[in-house]
Task: structure prediction
Amino acid sequence: MGPGETATKRGRVLVRPQYRQSFGETRQRTPCTLGTTGSPRRLTISTLPHPDTPVDRYAAIYDGFAQSPTLRRIWVTTYREYYPADAEPYGFVTLTDLRRMAEALALGPHDTFADAGCGRGGTGLCIAGQRGASLIGIYTSPAAIPHASATAHECGLQGRVRFHLGEFARTRLAAGMLAGVMSTDAFLFAPDLPAACREMARIIRAGGCFVFTSFELFKASTHFQLAPIHDYRPMLAVAGFTVEQYEEPPDWERRMRLLLAGIVAEAANLRREVGDVGAASFQQWATERPQELPDARRVLVVARRT
Ligand SMILES: C[S@@+](CC[C@H](N)C(=O)[O-])C[C@H]1O[C@@H](n2cnc3c(N)ncnc32)[C@H](O)[C@@H]1O
Result:
């Protein structure tokens, strides 16, 4: 293998120099520093139930994160200097991924962007904090929102963040209102991916980016009950995006296996900290997903609205 190359599931690719370079960096704290007290202004949270909102299978998981030092320890020890501590993701996004996403979004203080499938909100909050932009966290899982709201307050970002119930294919946001959309490890769950791409193209203004990490699934996933996803590029192109970057982040599979093995090894602690329901959900994920990884590939995508 030559310099600058890395092995991937689809052959060898040239890794962009800045990507490799930033992998060696130690973590810098973003302006989203937990513990900062903000003014007591209330967040705007859309609380009306959305007719298409799926069953909230994430409730026990998000409550579990708030209660479990063990979960945080597993993530920290797996990702080490690549762990985005301020974002505390429920997924596999690294500090390097988030930096690349922020770079592609290129937001300024007058911009509004969205984090779609925002979960506990930390990923979008970090980028909003860094760039001074306003954030709309789009969520399908109401259970995550108290945690996301608390984090926004701790970061002092409550004045420019709101959380909005919606779905990739049906955000209920106005056309062209966003400078960009980010999403970490959620897009694969969109029930209708072509419709979701069209909706992203509708809400992002011309020149803005849809930036996401997700998985291709070479075969259907039994664990997630999802059909195969072979390639996001054709549907993004049809929806009106030019795909500028489409890359497999180095080392994702080794880290993911390590993290899932950590969850299995810590089963007893997790049961004690998050309760039986949450712990069972984590264990099912940690035991089933590794078997499916040979048929999956993680990708980081930057698609520009033309
Ligand atoms: C693995 S979590 C990732 C959460 C967050 N982005 C992070 O990295 O911490 C997947 C998220 O996708 C959301 N989700 C699932 N189906 C969705 C859909 N159709 N539209 C938007 N979000 C969805 C879930 O509610 C969950 O928060």
